[in-house]
Structure formats: structure tokens, C-alpha cells
Specification:
By secondary structure, the chain is an alpha/beta fold. The chain has two domains: about 1-150, NAD(P)-binding Rossmann-like Domain (Rossmann fold, 3-Layer(aba) Sandwich), CATH 3.40.50.720; about 165-255, Orthogonal Bundle (ProC C-terminal domain-like fold). Helix content is about 55%, strand content about 10%. It has 13 helices and seven strands. It has a five-stranded mixed β-sheet with strand order 3-4-5-6-7. β6 (about 115-120), α7 and β7 form a beta-alpha-beta unit. α8 (about 155-160) packs across α13 and α9 packs across α10. The longest helix has 22 residues, at about 235-260. It is elongated.
């Protein structure tokens, strides 16, 4: 997600010299410099020096350990800290950053890698309007944004849009498998499934995003689509999807409670 954000900011017109990255892996530092022209350092303290905004883009289990050595510098400068580490609660982030540091969270998803993501943002009252505007501008570099009013909603966001791409990939995979079993050549079935997934997403974005209406427009009465949709409804697909998202939401909350999101 860090690399996705950097790429998005550069595409949006941010100059490479305005960005500084803390990266522990030498190969990753070399890649950032070579491919994106961004300064990357093994020293996180040097990377955040003078920063107005610090984005924490690490594995959730590494969040506290990454922030702890920076607490004094963060407390002195008080930049806006935006965490994209899934499941790491504001309370833990604030405790790791030190007193007075404004902290908020964002939950992007994998399509952010190509600028087509969606990020849900949450900020407590301590984060002011001007800082929220800055966060919006930053996260929009990866795609769309939405605000949620309660931190707990980010667990549902994780289940819906964070994990969501995998659900669509699974459906396309299953459609391709079924097409092959029904007589299509494997490569053709996979290409048709992938192109259908891609085109359907574009179609949603080109109109009102009224999903029920779009579905109805494809399903002619008595036609092939209606026959397929009836089969899916008979198999209780709605309940299955609801149960899947509930399981992912519950797991997100369990992992956060354990301190290992």
C-alpha cells in the first residue's frame, strides 16, 4: 500500500523530492529510487524529519514497534499520522506515537495498486478539518474515498472492500471453471471470465451504480440470465455472502483484540 500511495501521488503531480520513505530492505530502497525516483532510507527517523504527514504502511504486527522509536520526534513535530495497517486501533497508535500527535486510519484495498482502489477513512475528534482535507487529498491518489463515523466500522470495511477483491476473483475463477467443464477451452473460459469482471466494473462506474437496476437490465424475463440468477437464489447465495462478510468482520475484530491484526 505504501508503494501504491507513492505511485498515485507521483501520477497526481507530487514531486518525488517531496516524498521521503523509511524502508528497511535494501532491495526495496533501490527499487524505489530506480523506478520512482523517491528517496528511501533505512533510518525511519530521518525519513519523517520535517514531514507534515507520516503514513504508516507496515504489517499490522509491526506497527507498534515501528512507531515506538519515533515517539519523541513525533511528539515534538506533531505531524498527521495516517495508518493503513489493517486492524490496528487508534488507541494503540496514539499510545505508540506519544501525546498530542493527531492519528487517523485509512483502509484501502488492492486495486489501489493501479489507482482504482477505494479507501475508507476514520479520524477521531482530535484530527481537525484541515488535516482531514489533507488526508482526503493524499488517499484520493489511490482512487475513491469514503468516511466512516466510527472506528468499529473499519472492520466491516475490511470485510467488504478490503477483502472484497478476492471474492470477485473467486467468482470469476469459478465461472471460468464451469465454462471449461461445459465445453469451452480453458484459456478462452478464463479470458471471458476476466474480461467480464473487468467490463462489469467499468459499467458500474460509468452510470448511477444502481446495482439492482444494472442486474435487472441484463436479465431478460424468461431468458438465460434469469435462469442462472434463479439457481443462485435457490442456493441461498444472499445468505452465503452475508455469512462470509460476517465471518471476515468477526475475524478482523478478533485479531485486533489480540493485538495481532
Amino acid at each position: 500500500m505504501g508503494r501504491a500511495l507513492i505511485g498515485g501521488l507521483l501520477r497526481a503531480g507530487t514531486r518525488a523530492e517531496q516524498l521521503s520513505v523509511g524502508e528497511s530492505l535494501p532491495a526495496a530502497r533501490e527499487s524505489l529510487a530506480r523506478e520512482l525516483g523517491v528517496s528511501a532510507s533505512a533510518d525511519n527517523a530521518a525519513a519523517i524529519a520535517g514531514a507534515a504527514v507520516v503514513v504508516l504502511a507496515v504489517k499490522p504486527q509491526d506497527a507498534a514497534a515501528t512507531l515506538a522509536p519515533l515517539a519523541a520526534a513525533l511528539a515534538a513535530a506533531r505531524p498527521l499520522v495516517i495508518s493503513v495497517a489493517a486492524g490496528v486501533r487508534i488507541a494503540l497508535l496514539e499510545a505508540s506515537c506519544g501525546p498530542g500527535v493527531p492519528v487517523m486510519r485509512a483502509m484501502p484495498n488492492r486495486p489501489a495498486l493501479i489507482g482504482a482502489g477505494v479507501s475508507a477513512l476514520y479520524a477521531p475528534a482530535a484530527v481537525g478539518a484541515a488535516q482531514r482535507t489533507i488526508a482526503e487529498r493524499l488517499l484520493k491518489a489511490m482512487g475513491e474515498i469514503v468516511w466512516v463515523s466510527a472506528e468499529a466500522e473499519l472492520d466491516v470495511v475490511t470485510a467488504l472492500s478490503g477483502s472484497g477483491p478476492a471474492y470477485f476473483f473467486l467468482l470469476a475463477e469459478l465461472m471460468a471453471e464451469a465454462g471449461e467443464q461445459l465445453g469451452l477451452e480453458g484459456p478462452i473460459a478464463r479470458r471471458l471470465a476476466a474480461a467480464t469482471l473487468y467490463g462489469s466494473g467499468l459499467l458500474v462506474h460509468s452510470g448511477t451504480a444502481d446495482l439492482a437496476r444494472l442486474r435487472a437490465e441484463v436479465a431478460s424475463p424468461g431468458g438465460t440470465t434469469e435462469a442462472a440468477l434463479r439457481t443462485l437464489e435457490a442456493a441461498n447465495l444472499r445468505a452465503t455472502v452475508r455469512a462470509a462478510l460476517a465471518a471476515a468482520t468477526t475475524r478482523s475484530r478478533e485479531l485486533a483484540a489480540q493485538g495481532v491484526p
